[in-house]
């Protein structure tokens, strides 16, 4: 092996190590944030769980908000895409529930953590998605009855998300949608 090949091999190994370290940080941070919440999680606590320094985490994620972007943005992007592509209410709710299932830990975290609910970007985006779902459900109907119907349907989706595992949500997906749509 010549010097360029050795240098290339060393760089490849270093890149692989960084990728593996980043994945470990993401896995531990996601578990910490989705179980302890935003306020209950610190960079120091994540570092301690990993046995690395806070500086090592800061290399990949300089602040807790960068973790939010890592976890919450893909969830919200997928929710927005599912609703935007929905042709009718059952299809929209099915896509919505699929995303909530696929991002189960983040969905429950967003639903229960006041910091996320009140976040100027992420809370507002989730509210906008839920308003889009409500418009899909009410199909142009207005008034208090339509609003209550939308709330009942959304509750019929979110309650199982909070109570069931992703595997159970997948198993009972169609039943959840049918039951949630019963007020419509």
Residues in helices, as a percent range? over 70%
The residue-averaged pLDDT reads: 89
- Order of SSEs: HHHHHHHHHHH
Q: Which blocks of ≥5 consecutive residues have pLDDT under 50?
A: none
Q: Which of globular, elongated, flat, extended, rod-shaped describes the shape? A: elongated
CATH class of the largest domain: Mainly Alpha
Distance between the termini: 70 Å
Biggest beta-sheet profile: none
User: Which structural category fits the helices and strands?
Assistant: mainly alpha
What is the number of helices? 11
Quote the beta fraction. under 5%
Any idea what the CATH architecture of the largest domain is?
A: Orthogonal Bundle
Radius of gyration from CA coordinates: 21 Å
Number of extended strands: 0
What is the total domain count?
2
The CATH topology of the largest domain, please? Tetracycline Repressor, domain 2
In words, what does this structure look like?
- By secondary structure, this protein is mostly helical.
- The protein has two domains: 3-62, Arc Repressor Mutant, subunit A, CATH 1.10.10.60; 66-180, Tetracycline Repressor, domain 2, CATH 1.10.357.
- It is 80% helix and 0% strand.
- The protein is built from eleven helices and no strands.
- The protein has helices spanning 3-36, 43-50, 54-60, 64-84, 89-102, 104-112, 114-117, 122-138, 144-163, 166-171, 173-180.
- Helix 1 (3-36) crosses helix 6 (104-112), helix 5 (89-102) packs across helix 6 (104-112) and helix 5 (89-102) packs across helix 11 (173-180).
- It is elongated, with a radius of gyration of 21 Å.
């Amino acid at each position: 092996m010549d010097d360029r090949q050795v240098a290339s091999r060393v760089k490849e190994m270093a890149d692989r190590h960084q990728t593996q370290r980043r994945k470990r940080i993401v896995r531990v941070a996601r578990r910490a944030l989705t179980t302890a919440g935003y306020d209950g999680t610190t960079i120091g606590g994540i570092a301690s769980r990993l046995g690395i320094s806070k500086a090592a985490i800061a290399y990949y994620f300089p602040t807790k908000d960068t973790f939010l972007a890592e976890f919450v943005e893909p969830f919200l992007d997928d929710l927005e895409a599912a609703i935007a592509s929905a042709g009718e209410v059952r299809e929209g709710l099915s896509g919505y529930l699929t995303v909530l299932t696929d991002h189960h830990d983040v969905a429950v975290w967003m639903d229960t953590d006041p910091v996320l609910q009140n976040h100027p970007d992420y809370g507002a985006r989730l509210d906008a998605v839920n308003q889009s779902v409500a418009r899909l459900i009410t199909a142009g109907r207005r008034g208090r009855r339509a609003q209550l119907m939308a709330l009942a349907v959304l509750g019929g989706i979110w309650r199982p998300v909070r109570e069931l595992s992703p595997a159970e949500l997948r198993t009972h997906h169609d039943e959840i949608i049918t039951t949630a749509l019963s007020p419509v």
